[in-house]
Amino acid sequence: MTSPGGSPEQAFTVAEFNELVKAILEGSFDALWIRGEVTNFKAHGNGHWYFTLRDKTAQLSCVVWARDVKRLPAAPDEGMQVMARGRLSVYPARGQMQFMITSLEAEGEGLWRKQFEQTRAALEKDGLLDPARKRAIPLFPRTVAVVTSADGAALHDVVSVIQRRNPLVNVVVVPAAVQGETAPDSLVAAIERVGRWGGADVVIVGRGGGSREDLWAFNDERVARAIAACPVPTISAVGHEVDFSIADLVADLRAATPSAAAEAAVPVLAELQQAVRSLGGTVRGATLRRVRDAAVLLRQRARDLSVRARRATELRRARVQNASGRLEALSPLGTLARGYAVAKGADGRALGRAAAFTPGMPFDLQLHDGLVRAETRDVQPSVVSPISR
Amino acid sequence: MSFETSLNRLEQIATSLDRDDLSLEQSLALFEEGIAQLKEANAALTQAEGRVGQLVEQVDGVLEVRE
Question: N or C terminus of chain A with fewer C-beta within 10 Å?
């Protein structure tokens, strides 16, 4: 008896043979890594990727199923050197073997970097990376929301830093998965909740340090767009040492760690109190100085006024004296004072001419210090007036 | 009014009071306002201790903070 396929009578059907090959080959290899160059890459409409891995002398058909595509950062470029991990499979219907890839890494950071740049370009195109979009973090937030894992070290760090710096600030935790496949959706939902709630003055989105894969959710475009759309000012806090994340580019402020984010979000209470005290001192001091200046000015003005009033009074007094001097000089009383007398008739009018007298006529002599009653004895008019004008 | 608004206004007032082109009346009005702002700012700094809570979304979509 010959073995199957050993004679024309025992020939395999094609299906039988292919199934046999499939069973043998697929059973012979565990998941393994293969290195090669990507060529003939095609992303199908159904979400699967097809391409060929090759080197100088050989090639191998490869597929990445849609569910695995979702986990890969980006499609490989044509000609890119990659390491692919997968399982060998045989497709009996076509008699072909195919490498089913579940993870793919480019030399260096190729694929991650490529994905990063694609996301950055998409956000930039929509203007979400514009520095002018960045909002100021409020000086003194009453309530800080923290989007992070509920059980991570990041949350503990943020809460303890905030309480140490400023015990008046409320902290509201908005739990989210920060790594793994669910992380992007979970982060997006949490960030949207913060906006919908509306009770926070600032939101910290982040997690502690981890591997590049662990942090990858913070490079997710949806997460970035949720951060950009958040109505509350955002601080990114992804604990990476040197690199930055897409979330950092979109957030209003980037902090290197959750602790640093908490410090950036919350001012030290004692410093605020000091600032208010100092401003109060400035306002009081400046006002006091102005009042004092005004008082000095007032005294100065009062002095000026009294000096001027005195000078004006003296001036007037001098004028009055001057006028009265001149008046005196003109007054008949002045003349009388020098020893002259005026003769007055019974009616009190001055008798200025000899012709006004008749012998025996009584008249008065007005002197400067009194009146003398007199009587005319004789009248002798002069030929020539002794006083000619 | 927020603490930040009070503080900003206080800074403006302090700067204005240091200028020379203000009348005494203007200065006194600014001073009065400054004292009111100081009260506001100090009130914000002496409020009750903050709390730590968790934002919880209920089935009906209502969000509330639980301690």
Answer: C
